[in-house]
Description:
7 helices; seven-stranded parallel sheet; alpha/beta
Amino acid sequence: xxxxxxxxxxxxxxxxPASRTAQPAVAEPPxxxxxxxxxxxxxxxxxxxxxxxxxxxxxxxxxxxxxPASFPAPIVLVQHMPASFTPAFAERLNKLCQIEVRQAEDGxxxxxxxxxxxxxxxxxxxxxxxxxxxxxxxxxxxxxxxKPCVDVTFGSLARSYPGKTxxxxxxxxxxxxxxxxxxxxxxxxxxxxxxxxxxxxxxxPMAVAKAGLSDEVLALNDIGARLVEGVS
Length: 232
């Protein structure tokens, strides 16, 4: 007595004639890294500028606490914050960080391992005269929405150190920093921005990225280590 034919296997039923061999499943491609493919080697920068707003205090703490005391570049920080808060914020960062952090004063000299925070309610500019960079603290201009303003500080960095600045835009509402980054890019400098997933508010870094100004887009947890790796 003949055995009845066996039904085709499930593999053979999958959208193909039984005579065709089933194709192996295709592996899902790996998730893209938060780091841009344009990541470059370590460079010597005259100064690092960091601008941020909403979510910035936590973001700045995360980034700056990752830096060693021997960090080779001066840093200028612009955080949208009222004048009554910036001195205490700078003091708190200084206690937590290996680098020195303090609120900027008019005439301060930029030096490696020092981060200067723009005072609330005023504008901070960097002047480079005869190779010596100094801070200028100016009264807040009522025509500007932000005091301090990232665009003002970054614009001064573009003029003082063309092609020798690293600008970093972190979490924040609005688009402050976009025009300053544009000036820096036009001078040959490098721009990094925080990614959407790790931003509290993806406004400022989105404006920079959408304008095509970001050389690298990084998760917050990667920025400190990338600074150590990428700034010689």
